[in-house]
Amino acid sequence: MTEMTPLDLAHAAMEAAPADAAARLRFFERLADSELFLLLDKEPEGDRISPEIFETGEGRFVLVFDREERLAQFAERIVPYAALSGRVIASMLAGQGIGLGVNLEVAPSSILIPDAAMGWLAETLAHAPGEVEAAISEVHPPRGLPETLLAALDTKLATAMGLARMAYLAAVTYESGGSGHLLAFIGAEPGAEPALAKAAGEALTFSGIEAGALDVGFFAASEEISARLARVGLRFDLPEVETGQIYQPQRPGSDPEKPPRLK
After folding, report:
1. Residue 246 placed within a domain
2. For residue 84, what are the β-bridge partners?
3. What is the Cα–Cα distance from 112 to 118, expressed in whole angstroms?
4. Which residue, 62, 94, 125, sits at the end of a domain?
5. Among 27, 52, 86, 218, who pairs with 10 as Cys (CB 3.0-4.6 Å)?
6. Domain at 156, CATH number
7. Are 261 and 18 in contact (CB under 8 A)?
8. At 211, phi and psi to the nearest 5?
């Protein structure tokens, strides 16, 4: 029996609980995070690709597979393809009136995702928490956050290779009088802030947590606030980059807590 992939498992969980929005969110998260092999109608020309588009009674679709062997099994011949992340493909398809066929006929996760759902995914992936600018007066251990969010942050930040040394999650009070939870990145690489903020935003979104539940901040290890965060915050270590890999997270339906239902 072929080994089940993360996308297969997320799809099975979604199918087993069709009314569970959290299961649908997790499926979309796995789709966005997966490397997918996109079937092309001709060989790439430089950085330009031309996906093969299939016309069906349910609309127009491009086809992707989460394993090269699955693409080969479907095509039964040598075909051109491009390996892209699900988030990049969602961005490409947004507003084009084109849906996504995933692992059609060759895997348990075989599914047609309509264009509206792909638009929702692209918009959802664009959300990011606000970067904190107010001065912090008090720092406390995090409290009252669901385990689903903590697990999602742990999983998501493990993919942000080399973009920062670590992150601390803590409850904070600002000098302005406001309070909340802060995910503080320590020693972020120059220019990595948008990608890290999006990673945090995706962890929130796909956990079903409101975006306002978490602020994001960036601090140097030498700053006094970093030492205070280290004493009480929940620490997440980001893996060091090994081969120059860079994490780059990237309409209809605008509520990230209500993912589209899929057939």
Report:
1. no
2. 36
3. 11
4. 125
5. 27
6. 3.30.429
7. yes
8. -60, -30
In angstroms, the CA 75 to CA 135 distance is: 57
Assign residue 92 a region (left: φ > 0; alpha: ψ between -120 and 50; beta: otherwise): alpha
The answer to whether 182 and 214 have CB atoms below 8 angstroms apart is: yes
67: tokens are 């394993």
Query: Which residues span the domain enclosing 57?
Result: 6-125
Nearest residue to 262 via CA among 48, 113, 47: 113
200-234 tens-digit pLDDT: 888 888 887 665 578 899 999 999 999 999 999 99
Angle between helices 21-33 and 6-16 (to 10 degrees): 160
Secondary structure in 3-state letters for the chain: CCCCCHHHHHHHHHHHCCCCHHHHHHHHHHHHHCEEEEEECCCCECCECCECEEEECCEEEEEEECCHHHHHHHHCCCCCEEEEEHHHHHHHHCCCCEEEEECCCCCCCCEEECHHHHHHHHHHHCCCCCECCCCEEEEECCCCCCHHHHHHHHHHHCCCCCCCCEEEEEEEEECCCCEEEEEEEECCCCCCHHHHHHHHHHHHHCCCCCHHHCEEEEECCCCHHHHHHHHHCEEEECCCCCCCCCCCCCCCCCCCCCCCCCC
Q: What are phi and psi of 76, to 5 degrees?
A: 60, 25
186 contacts 221 by C-beta, under 8 angstroms: yes
Q: How many structural domains are present in the chain? A: 2
Where residue 159 falls among pLDDT bands split at 50, 70, 90?
A: confident
